[in-house]
Specification:
There is one protein chain. Helices cover 33% and strands 24% of the residues. The chain is α/β, with parallel strands linked by helices. The chain folds into 3 domains: 91 residues, 2-Layer Sandwich (Nucleotidyltransferase, domain 5); 147 residues, 3-Layer(aba) Sandwich (Rossmann fold); 288 residues, no CATH class. It has an 8-stranded mixed β-sheet, with helices on both faces. Strand 7, helix 4 and strand 8 form a beta-alpha-beta unit. The protein is globular, with a radius of gyration of 25 Å. The relative contact order is 0.09.
């Protein structure tokens, strides 16, 4: 791989690609008036499959399109990226991410499912992988069933964990003795030696190594759970990235050539998205949640108090997995978001039609409302799964003092707290391509139920993967483009936590800004939208009634400056958790009122 020494001050033109399963997306970043801006984008079909079977062909096509739009020649006569930039030719650096061919797929093993196996799973997901299965001593499967499962899977690598350093060795060795005879077979190539990462009890490493023969390549890294109280994921994540390049990418068609072209290691797409979200949260000192909803899966990323988590909900998506969403949520749950005259029978027919033709896009208002109703449930379920996974370490023995007697905190609590969430970022077809920004904001608020003051944004053209890998070589450029071009701010949502009777007072509000001056009181069950443009800010004071909380505790007032956006300022007194009326007619009326308040569909 070419790893040139790069001087950040001399980088003016950056080409970045994301090789997805179906399309390769290229963006061009240039220095304009002293600031880095995303100036052009292009895309071409990914060419990792037959008959082309060379990923660089798709990259060249996408780069050529961007070059034509920008009036800059980026690809030479030999089909290679021109570097460095000179005049109207070439770019200074070229970087790429990849999720082509199904992305990075990992099998995880551990001794205890909730402890070492959970830590190993967090390491794999954080590196951008899809976890095919988690094998552990207490997963309720018999040894022969576990061996059968390992034989059925075709992972790109195996990550093993188990035991604390200096602790008992026999359990982790027992797991290794299950994996070794099962001889897990890799996805690519018959001559390919399966990479196995051992990140468990360091004193058991030699015994684990003895159980494997030459059919695997064993890498030993620091324990992901050296003690019960501490998690150490970085060494395992770094090793996963290294092996992804050395083994997995090297066997994918055309990737050897692509690796020679890039100026930074190629990252798995979800890993790069997590990387930029972490950088933003760290730089601004905020808590952030990002979601990417696709046709088959939904990824949720979160950073709370500096702790990063990612989950992949493999069966929640808007096309190939739409039936799973409806089965898991239940038809009544989907139907409650539909304010039009529609019954369960019609809903089922629409689901079946979508299953037959998964790539169709809505052509009528009914079809649009139906899809957005399903998306609310898909996002809600994906976020629930994320909250269950993003927890404090389980199995930690806590020293409790007299002062902790009445504290409810214990190990294994979710670290996701909507009241402390500052930024919620949306991406993925149904959110990014909604005809109106108000619809994107409504889907996010209904599904994620933010509490207190929360900024809403969407990734304009799914640029976060490109910026995640760019942040590794040029953080300034990545963060500048993220702020200026990547995010479209929708506005701010202010929501009260608590429950009350519909129609009873919830909070008083005062809004003071150059373009907006409002005050009043809202009753439980209402939604209000105030126009506050993308460049505008306003001071908002909320005085909640007793039993309602907007960030300072029950009944305590909060005053904050809020950011505007393409949607504006949303005040939400529907209560948290959000509960809709059970009776269909009442529910329909309530949803119709909220739909009208936000101007979702009317013309």
């Amino acid at each position: 791989m070419t790893q040139r020494q790069l001087d950040p001050d001399k980088i003016d033109v950056i080409l970045a690609t994301d090789c997805g399963s179906t399309t390769t997306k290229a963006i061009l970043i240039q220095k304009v008036d002293g600031h880095y801006r995303q100036t052009h984008r292009g895309e071409a079909p990914t060419t990792v499959e037959e008959p082309v079977a060379d990923v660089t062909v798709g990259v060249t096509n996408a780069a050529t399109e961007v070059g034509e739009l920008a009036g800059r020649k980026l690809v030479d006569e030999n089909g290679e990226i021109i570097r460095p930039a000179q005049g109207n030719e070439g770019c200074d650096i070229y970087i790429s991410t990849s999720s082509a061919g199904g992305g990075l797929q990992i099998l995880v093993t551990g001794v205890v499912e909730e402890m070492s196996a959970a830590s190993a799973k967090r390491a794999a997901l954080g590196a951008g992988a899809i976890v095919l299965d988690v094998i552990s001593s207490n997963d309720r499967r018999r040894p022969h069933e576990q061996i059968q499962r390992i034989r059925e899977l075709r992972p790109d690598m195996v990550v093993m964990a188990g035991g604390t350093d200096g602790g008992t060795k026999k359990h982790v060795v027992k797991i290794a003795e299950l994996v070794a005879p099962a001889k897990p077979r890799p996805r690519f190539g018959g001559k390919y030696r399966m990479p196995v990462i051992y990140a468990g009890n360091q004193e058991a490493a030699a015994l684990v190594a003895d159980t494997f023969d030459e059919s695997v390549t064993l890498s030993v890294v620091e324990n992901v759970r050296p003690t019960l109280e501490r998690e150490n994921l970085e060494p395992a994540r770094d090793c996963i990235h290294d092996l992804f390049l050395e083994h997995v990418m090297a066997h994918a068609p055309g990737y050897n050539r692509l690796m020679d072209w890039t100026d930074a290691p190629i990252m798995p797409t979800p890993g790069a998205v997590g990387n930029i979200l972490r950088q933003i949260a760290e730089r601004n000192g905020i808590n952030a949640v990002g979601v990417d909803i696709g046709g088959a899966t939904t990824d949720v990323f979160s950073v709370f108090d500096g702790v990063f988590n990612r989950t992949v909900s493999a069966n929640l998506g808007m096309s190939y997995s739409i039936s799973n969403v409806c089965a898991e949520a239940g038809m009544p749950s989907v139907l409650r978001w539909v304010h039009l005259d529609m019954d369960e029978r019609e809903l089922r027919n629409r689901v079946k039609n979508k299953m037959i033709r998964p790539t169709t896009i809505p052509q009528t208002l009914e079809a649009l409302v139906f899809e957005q109703a399903v998306s609310r449930e898909a996002l809600r379920l994906a976020y629930l799964q994320h909250k269950e996974f993003a927890t404090t370490l389980k199995g930690v023995q806590q020293q409790r003092t007299v002062g902790d007697t009445f504290s409810q905190l214990s190990s294994g609590q979710s670290i996701v707290n909507n009241m402390t969430l500052n930024l919620l970022v949306a991406s993925g077809g149904v959110l990014s391509h909604a005809p109106r920004m108000e619809q994107t904001a409504a889907m996010m608020v209904d599904a994620f139920e933010p509490e207190g003051f929360t900024e809403l944004a969407k990734d304009s053209i799914f640029m976060m993967p490109h910026l995640g890998v760019l942040a590794q070589v040029h953080p300034t450029a990545a963060l500048e483009v993220f702020e200026r071009d990547c995010l479209i701010y929708l506005g701010t949502c202010v929501a009260a936590k608590g429950r009350g009777k519909a129609g009873k007072p919830c909070f008083r509000y005062e809004i003071e800004g150059p373009s907006l001056r409002e005050q009043g009181e809202m009753a439980v069950g209402e939604l209000k939208l105030f126009p506050l443009g993308p460049e505008d800010r306003a001071r908002v004071k909320i005085e909640p009634r007793r039993g309602f909380d907007v960030g300072a505790g029950s009944g305590r007032p909060v005053e904050k400056e809020v950011r505007g956006g393409t949607v504006g300022l949303i005040l939400d007194t529907r209560g948290r958790p959000l509960v809709l009326p059970e009776e269909r007619t009442t529910c329909r009326q309530a949803v119709a009122t909220w739909t009208q308040a936000l101007g979702l569909y009317d013309d």
